[in-house]
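Quarterly update from the structural biology core.
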Amino acid sequence: MSIENQTNVIRLVEESIAHFRGALTAPEPVIPTAHALDTLMRASTAHADLASLAPDVAREAPGLILAIAPKVSEAVSGSIAADRVHFALGAASALLTVQPNAFHVDRLLYVGLLLADLRGFLCRSELNRRGDPLMRNIRAERTGDSAAEQSSAKPLDGEAHAPPAPPAMPDAVERWERGPNELRRVR
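Predicted structure, tokenized:
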């Protein structure tokens, strides 16, 4: 591995640990944990032996990640099982502390699964917070409820106001029915 690549991997490891530290003190630990896992996966994919490359991080990581696990589990309870969170964060800790072995790829995959689950959780949470305006609009259009079509989405954090409701879209799915001698569109 070139010095430049090694430096980039060390930077990713340090960035990952900084996100884990942020998750420990954040009122909402899911976002910094997702960032930490993303950067950790990039680092561990580039160089499997992170423990040798960043020994200071290897010493700090287990205690830090162990302290984060219950906070993340609580934040996503009802959406992601606590044992999945703990197991995957244990795999993340091992990526930082264990010499590469036959389970390195499995650890990466478990970390990747948790990262995907956390991202999904964040997306579902934001859609729920905003009242899922796209789905509401589609349902209203299908049922012909013009009052529901007029309701707009809640603004994203930092937006001054909600965007106007999108124009009604035609039904994106056409249904067809096969008769004995014909194919006809069903409304």
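Residues 104-129 form the longest helix (26 residues).
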